[in-house]
Design a protein that fits this description.
The chain contains nine helices and 13 strands. The chain is of the alpha/beta class and 276 residues long. The model has no long low-confidence stretch (mean pLDDT 94).
């Protein structure tokens, strides 16, 4: 059986592919979040960086004197994150099945499109969320709602799905580029339903850089995989969040504070209501 794309795409090579998504961008993102809603919980509960990757946001979260836990499924990326932020606790786990107690966190962060990987149809994985069986991304949202404390916030940094649909409406877009010791061929397109963006990625060693590429896990035969990220509308994201007991309280269109819909991102905040 072929491995899910997200078990292949987030290897040791991933930070090299996205080196342009740098510390400055992470700083701008994290510093924007408190303008939308409180990151710190009055009870000093920790913040969960869900899908933390190699930890580029952690420095800026720690700068705000937050207690942060990083969770990711990729062991190579967690190793890089631990080297970057040795004072942070990390968990290697699947976001579909969060191994965290209910109400453990004052905030959950899903940054740089760390959501939308599992779909929501009949072919999506079904997960017992501790009270109901949900499929795919609905299970992720339900899990986030479960581990958030009352009054806590889910910060979702998601692509602007409307813009992506417009960009790809005329057909696939391909590009070749170099990333460190790698040659990269990427083709982005809409899936047949228009409900997801699909990206075919082929990685190989650049000429004369075989050893460097191999150190990143890209051997002589290269690596090929197909990413698939759902293109949810704002209304659909709101419904998914509502399944976790969350409702939207704020939003922005980029990391510099543009209005929602006026920038390339959807930076959304969902709140879990107090039940006291």
């Amino acid at each position: 059986m072929t491995e899910p794309w997200y078990r292949v795409a987030f290897g040791a090579f991933y930070p090299v592919l996205y080196a342009h998504r740098d510390d400055d961008e992470a700083r701008r993102c994290v510093r924007r979040l408190p303008d939308l809603a409180p990151l710190a919980d009055a009870r000093a509960l920790p913040v969960l960086d869900l899908g933390c990757g190699d930890g580029r946001h952690l420095r800026w979260l720690r700068e705000q004197d937050l207690t942060v836990i990083g969770l990711d499924l990729s062991r190579p990326l967690l190793a890089a994150a631990a080297a970057r932020a040795p004072e942070v606790a990390f968990v290697c786990a699947d976001m579909l099945r969060l191994p965290c107690r209910a109400g453990a966190f004052g905030a959950v962060l899903s940054l740089f499109t760390a959501f939308g990987y599992f779909g929501d149809g009949d072919d999506a994985p079904a997960v017992d969320t501790g009270g109901a069986v949900c499929r795919g991304d609905a299970a992720v949202a339900a899990g986030i709602g479960r581990v958030l404390a009352d009054g806590g916030h889910w910060f979702l940094d998601y692509l602007d799905a409307d813009r992506v649909r417009l960009e790809l409406a005329a057909g696939p877009i391909s590009r070749k580029r170099e990333a460190g010791p790698l040659e990269v061929l990427e083709t982005r397109r809409l899936d047949a339903s228009g409900g997801a963006v699909v990206k075919d990625v082929r990685l190989s060693a650049a000429p004369g850089r075989d050893a460097e590429a191999a150190a990143l896990g890209v051997g002589s035969v290269g690596i090929a995989y197909r990413e698939r990220v759902a293109l949810y509308t704002l209304a659909e994201l709101d419904l998914l969040a509502a399944g976790g007991g969350l409702h939207r309280v704020a939003g922005a269109g980029d990391y510099d504070g543009a209005p929602l819909g006026a920038g390339p991102r959807w930076l959304l905040v969902y709140r879990k209501e107090d039940h006291a």
